[in-house]
From TrEMBL:
<feature type="domain" description="MnmG N-terminal">
    <location>
        <begin position="38"/>
        <end position="435"/>
    </location>
</feature>
<dbReference type="GO" id="GO:0050660">
    <property type="term" value="F:flavin adenine dinucleotide binding"/>
</dbReference>
<dbReference type="Pfam" id="PF01134">
    <property type="entry name" value="GIDA"/>
</dbReference>
<dbReference type="InterPro" id="IPR040131">
    <property type="entry name" value="MnmG_N"/>
</dbReference>
<dbReference type="GO" id="GO:0005829">
    <property type="term" value="C:cytosol"/>
</dbReference>
<keyword id="KW-0285">Flavoprotein</keyword>
<dbReference type="GO" id="GO:0002098">
    <property type="term" value="P:tRNA wobble uridine modification"/>
</dbReference>
<dbReference type="GO" id="GO:0030488">
    <property type="term" value="P:tRNA methylation"/>
</dbReference>
<dbReference type="InterPro" id="IPR036188">
    <property type="entry name" value="FAD/NAD-bd_sf"/>
</dbReference>
<protein>
    <submittedName>
        <fullName>Protein MTO1 homolog, mitochondrial isoform X1</fullName>
    </submittedName>
</protein>
<dbReference type="InterPro" id="IPR004416">
    <property type="entry name" value="MnmG"/>
</dbReference>
<dbReference type="InterPro" id="IPR002218">
    <property type="entry name" value="MnmG-rel"/>
</dbReference>
<keyword id="KW-0274">FAD</keyword>
<dbReference type="InterPro" id="IPR020595">
    <property type="entry name" value="MnmG-rel_CS"/>
</dbReference>
<comment type="similarity">
    <text>Belongs to the MnmG family.</text>
</comment>
């Protein structure tokens, strides 16, 4: 048992640190016919796609290894991106020329900014995404990226060599071994394994080895990491059942319409691909005491809930909600999965009850009385590595040139994974070229807060980004991510295109020009009083008053 600090004090987490003999160090170099790359990325999820393309943009010959090419960019859980805090991460990934924001602008079906009632520093850009469109657009981008090779294959082991004496670490990674015994050599390796390290799917009392429904877990790689001495923990998450759209009575539910106009995620886009009037609505319903009754009567049939493994605090299963907050109703958002999809995603109903009980529970909810479950919800348990074993560049302390990104570090997926992926890809490439690492501090971005929290505090539950975690949130707004990070990404990392760099420079100069114009505007206090009668401006002031002074003092009137 290892004790470490969480965000709210000291917490305890159950980790395993088993003693295994170290893997044999290889002194073999790649032969003339052995593939050799600068960077290898293992995993084609949200962290892996960002890592692979970031490394390639930095000029490194990159190999993306994935079980199946047709699952690259697959949205394994909810059909949405963004939210409070998460939308900030997406803007920062985009500022570094990442993919997910641009792909979301091409694939969304419902765009909305959350927290509009508060200041712009805590607005949360969010969108419902068409799963099929997102995957298609992501694969098109990945397969056309220069210097990036995509190959199907499962990694069984790492190739290790003697360490570089000028760096810390017991050994150095120099490639991977696939399950068929073939080897691929590289200068750096990035692991973005998601929930696949010894992944286990749970429905009721049934347990099946899988990283997600239909995909085999990674066992050999998990064993290798343990042998190397990495501290390994266990986390869990889950996903709701999918419901047939035609079986839902939407007419009696609360309808949620998209924003008009819709705000795009990417700084490179003025608009999203679809007009607001053509976007799909979401609907709101709630649980009731009958749902609580079904959960409480069938806890003995739910092994996932009985496990002591920690799940996501801010996206709990319906079973966890009923146990933690009894006698309350809970929101259920009915979200479309795509423009031509017949499925609805019931956000807020993650569950692992036996399949027959899932449909029984769902039909107790208003509007879902005749609902048909097409795919049952399920839980996933998986290994993760204590993130205090990595540096702020996401390179591991134990193994040189080995990087971790995504859920392997104990975070939630999607936005947090994408943010880590782009940083890991940049730094793996910089490491190849023996350049200083690219590190974002807590004062510079939400990505900096995310990585600093992980590498200094660790985590005992899936880490989710919130604006409340960020001390400098008033200056780290979604609208200025490009001015904070794009210039650094271009000059220090080489991950930003010339087009994006020029656009960021144009935006910066335009803002500076606008501020200069505002500073030049000044009138007497009596004239300002006539222009803005609501502002309590003293007419006894003898000196002229600048517009910028008014903005700072009376911004709530302007």
């Amino acid at each position: 048992m290892f004790s470490f600090r969480g965000c709210g004090g000291r917490v305890a987490a159950s980790f395993t640190k088993r003693q295994f003999p170290l893997p044999r160090l290889s002194s073999d170099s790649a032969g003339p016919r052995t593939p050799h790359f600068d960077v290898i990325v293992i995993g084609g999820g949200h962290a892996g796609t960002e890592a692979a393309t970031a490394a390639a943009r930095c000029g490194s010959r990159t190999l993306l290894l994935t079980h199946r090419v047709d699952t690259i960019g697959q949205m394994s859980c909810n059909p949405s991106f963004g939210g409070i805090g998460k939308g900030h991460l997406m803007r920062e990934v985009d500022a570094l020329d990442g993919l997910c924001s641009r792909i979301c602008d091409q694939s969304g079906v419902h765009y909305k900014v959350l927290n509009r009632c508060k200041g712009p520093a805590v607005w949360g850009l969010r969108a419902q995404i068409d799963r099929k469109l997102y995957k298609q657009n992501m694969q098109k981008e990945i397969l056309s990226t220069p210097l990036l090779t995509v190959q199907e294959g499962a990694v069984e082991d790492l190739i290790l060599t003697e360490p570089e004496p000028e760096h810390t670490g017991k050994c150095r990674v120099s490639g991977v071994v696939l399950v068929d015994g073939s080897t691929v050599y590289s200068e750096s390796v990035i692991l973005t394994t998601g929930t696949f390290l010894r992944g286990m799917i749970i429905i009721g009392l049934e347990m099946h080895p899988a990283g997600r429904l239909g995909d085999q877990p990674s066992i050999g790689l998990a064993q290798t990491l343990e042998k190397l001495g990495f501290v390994v923990g266990r986390l869990k998450t889950g996903t709701p059942p999918r419901i047939a759209k035609e079986s839902i009575n939407f007419s009696i539910l609360n309808k949620q319409t998209p924003d008009n106009p819709s705000l795009p995620f990417s700084f490179m886009n003025e608009t999203v691909w679809i007009k607001p009037e053509d976007q799909l609505p979401c609907y709101l319903t709630h649980t009731n005491p009958r749902v609580d009754e079904i959960v409480l009567k069938n806890l003995h049939l739910n092994s996932h809930v009985k496990e002591t493994i920690r799940g996501p605090r801010y996206c709990p299963s319906i079973e966890s909600k009923v146990l933690r907050f009894p006698n309350r109703q809970h929101q259920v958002w009915l979200e479309p999965e795509g423009m031509d999809s017949d499925l609805i995603y019931p956000q807020g109903l993650s569950m692992t009850l036996p399949a027959e009980l899932q449909e029984k529970m769902i039909t107790c909810i208003r509007g879902l009385e005749k609902a048909k479950v097409i795919q049952p919800g399920y839980g996933v348990q998986y290994d993760y590595l204590d993130p205090r074993q990595i540096t702020p560049s996401l390179e591991t302390h134990l193994v040189q040139r080995l990087f971790f990104a995504g859920q392997i570090n104990g975070t939630t997926g999607y936005e947090e994974a994408a943010a880590q992926g782009v940083i890991a890809g940049i730094n793996a490439s910089l490491r190849v070229n023996r350049k200083p690492p690219f590190v974002i501090s807590r004062t510079e971005g939400y990505i900096g807060v995310l990585i600093d929290d992980l590498t200094t505090l660790g985590t005992s539950e899936p880490y989710r980004m919130f604006t409340s975690r960020v001390e400098f949130r008033l200056s780290l707004r979604p609208d200025n991510a490009d001015s904070r990070l794009t210039l650094r990404g271009y000059k220090e990392a080489g991950c930003v295109s010339q087009q994006r760099y020029e656009r960021a420079c144009w935006m910066k100069s335009s803002l500076e020009e606008g501020i200069s114009v505002l500073k030049s505007i000044e009138f007497s206090s009596s004239k300002w009083k006539n222009l803005i009668p609501e502002a309590s401006i003293s007419t006894s002031r003898s000196l002229p008053v600048r517009y910028t002074f008014l903005i700072q003092t009376f911004s709530h009137f302007l």
